[in-house]
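[job 4471] stage=fold_predict status=RUNNING
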Amino acid sequence: MKNRSLVMGVAIAILALLSFTHEVKSQDEKTSTSYTVNRGVHTITHRNSQGRFQMEYEGKIEFTDDDKAIKSISRGGYLLIRKTTFGDRREVLAEPNSDGSINYEYRVGRSRQDWGKEGQEFLANVLLEVIRTTGMGAEGRVERFYKAGGVNAVMQELSHIRSDNVSRIYLDVLMDNHELSSSELVGVAQYITKELDSDYYISEIFKNHGDKFLKSQEATGAFLDVIRRMDSDHYVSQILERMLREDLDATSVAKVLQAASNMDSDHYKTEVLKELLDRRDLDNTTVDQIIKAAADIDSDHYATIILRDALDRPNLSDDAFNNLMNAVSHIDSDHYVTETFRSMLRNRDVSDKVVEAIMNRLEYMDSDHYRTLILNDLFENQKISDKYFESLLRTVTDMDSDHYASQVLSKLLKNDEISDATYSQVLSKVAEIDSDHYKVTILKDVMRGDLTKSHMMSLLKVADEIDSDYYKSEVLKGACDAVRELNDEVVKDEFRKVARGIRSDTYYGRVARCID
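[job 4471] inference complete, writing structure tokens
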């Protein structure tokens, strides 16, 4: 393969160096590298504990295969390399001649020296440092080492490179251009684990090549070892989300899920699990495992996001649904429990077992508001058998708010499928409401429907217990039409009996003759 030009190498290697500072792998030495471009002139400055070098160039520049000399410089271009070590300053300026040869100026301090062996040795030594520090010519060098000795030769060269960023550049080239075996990928992962400190650069490698590591058990294990030693859940999530855009088999998806489950951050864990749930190719076992992972999320907010997304999936298995109910039991917030239950009740016909679980959970909720929201959805979307009414009535009894209790009781009394015995039980709860206003609201609301004789008799008995003449008359006014339609003398006698309990002539007069 032909050597790439300096400019092409820079395109691969140096753009990432723009205005950044990083630490190299050595813990006892700090380095920094900066890169700027101004009107076509490129300037790279590298500093370490021993000194610094500066490189400035313009035009197209190519190096020889041994990285020790300049092969060519385009017309009008130049290369200036200046290095200072413990006060000793040396520089080389290289410019093209008209015949394509290169003219060199070599200086030591301020003194210009003849171009000869000393200058050539200085250029040879500094070029290698420049290349290894900046990543220039990475593509050509990787290919050269690979042809000479395969992956091992490339990895050997990487052992001389101290910058995580440059190491990333070389690994990108290697894995972009070559199909590595499982054992070679293991070696790459082990190198990353041992040599690279920056989670950012590790994430850049695996975002681009993570799918390659999932093709064998050995490489996947090595890959997960790298993931586990990373400190930043932010970068781990980027890697996993990028991998999930690939066509992964079920085993690989399960391994991604395992890596996500090991994350500490609920936010980033949720981002990965959501990405997983968006895949159409998930089997029931994987969905089940995602729901189980949601149960381990500490944040009610993030756990609810996953559970609601899981509920949106078609044909959720019974096992997954049961695990979802278990996950809900770990949510403390009434608000988030309500969000999950409402999604559940709107999206599918739930079994009696699920209804029972919902009813049991309601008894442990503190908010009457959220209890009522769930019950309203339950009444609208599900048929509630008599066996759950005892639990419903316990929930109503636990409610402190007459407002919310009245909403639930009114819906219960409108249920055509409840037995007379249950109807009477519900009315007994209506009678226990302290507020005549809410008590009357329930009775008037129920009397607008079709009522049996038994139900009307029970309603009138509750009305008889209302102390306020005004509210009692309001109930009877609302019952007039229904009593007339029933046209039953026993019901009419009960109506008249309740009416006679009104002490105010004014209010009594409003209802005394309404059924005759």
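[job 4471] summary: The longest strand covers residues 88-96.
[job 4471] exit 0
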